[in-house]
Design brief:
Radius of gyration: 19 Å
Helix content: 25-40%
Mean pLDDT: 93
Largest sheet: 5 strands, mixed
Low-confidence stretches: none
Number of strands: 10
Shape: globular
Number of helices: 11
Bound molecules: tetrahydrodeoxyuridine
Order of helices and strands: HEEHHEHEEHHHEEHEHHEEH
Strand content: 15-25%
Strand order of the largest sheet: 2-1-3-4-5
């Protein structure tokens, strides 16, 4: 028997509406398949996400993982590691009664969900835009991989307050302070190497991102990607995909020298997709002096090719 006891019908209705709404912000120009997700946390919050693609394909973020990354950035994992009570995934409204295979969370998302839920008391709802079908998470992932360490949670930072601080004073030094502060919310239950980021967008908003570790490290999400994904979920990619005008990230060196860490802390494919060419990216590795580069610097070789 699936364990679907902890959520009420009213919770499902409200989460379905949120997931369907989130789908409208999906950035899926390559697959044209839009997905929205909503997570109901153990303390009753609804946090949404949509799928966010990049042209290099392999690092697209599914809607479910977008919602998890956003929840982590908002400090939900600081309160409890198994914060997911329910996940609703809503695919682009095609027609009623589409096959389950078209509305089912992918295997990678099941793996990431399992890091942040108690499998026996987590509900998954699959929605075709007309009707949600309810499952217990234990029906979806049997013997999921777990490789988590016990960690002592840090006090949760207010993501909203940090974003306000960034907006009020979007200068590099202040943005770095914000990026450093939001590290406290990162999910660090595997390597304990928290990252933080903040981005400014063309429509005049600021978005924080906190790193999300996963037992399967291939599914980790870096803080800069998380910030970009949260902005897309909030509609920032609606007018232009090059919506990031400035960014600051605070990352650990992971035992490498600062120069190697610097090279590896920015994903060029993500920058190519979402940054304006003249955007400044400031990086601080551990406590080393920060370093600023321009997004277009990453692609100086394309000028020769053109
Ligand atoms: N996608 C999701 O967002 N969630 C899933 O569980 C399945 C797939 C996205 C990824 C990609 O952007 C598009 O749907 C087509 O695979």
């Amino acid at each position: 028997m699936p364990n679907t006891a902890p959520v009420s019908a009213a919770d499902i209705v409200r989460a379905l509406a949120a997931a369907r709404q989130a789908r409208s912000n999906a950035y899926a120009p390559y697959s044209n398949f839009k997905v929205g997700a909503a997570i109901l946390t153990q303390d009753g919050q609804l946090i949404t996400g949509c799928n966010v693609e990049i042209a290099s394909w392999e690092e697209a973020t599914c809607a479910e993982r977008s919602a998890i990354a956003s929840a982590v950035t908002q400090g939900v994992a600081n309160e409890r590691a198994d914060f997911i009570k329910m996940v609703v995934v809503s695919t682009q409204a095609a027609k009623p009664n589409v096959p389950l295979t078209l509305i089912s969370p992918c295997g990678a998302c099941r793996q990431v969900i399992s890091d942040f839920c108690s499998p026996l008391s987590c509900t998954v709802v699959m929605d075709d835009g007309h009707e949600g079908k309810v499952f217990g998470f234990d029906e979806l992932l049997l013997h999921g991989f777990r490789y988590n360490q016990p960690i002592s949670p840090l006090p949760r930072m207010s993501c909203q307050a940090l974003e306000k601080t960034a907006l009020l004073n979007p200068h590099t030094g202040n943005l770095l302070e914000v990026a450093r502060a939001v590290k406290a919310n990162a999910a660090r239950q595997v390597q304990d190497l928290p990252e933080g980021a903040v981005i400014m967008t063309t429509d005049g908003r600021a978005f924080c991102g906190a790193g999300v570790e996963n037992g399967c490290t291939a599914l980790n999400m870096r803080a800069l990607r998380v910030a970009a994904v949260r902005a897309v979920d909030a509609g920032a990619a609606k007018t232009s995909s090059a919506f990031i005008t400035k960014a600051a990230i605070a990352v650990p060196s992971r035992g490498r020298n600062a120069q190697a860490a610097l090279r590896q802390s920015i994903n060029p494919a993500l920058v190519a997709e979402f940054f304006s060419d003249d955007a400044e990216i400031t990086v601080q590795i551990d406590e080393n002096p920060p370093f600023t580069l321009r997004a277009s610097d990453l692609f100086s070789w394309t000028n020769q090719a053109a």
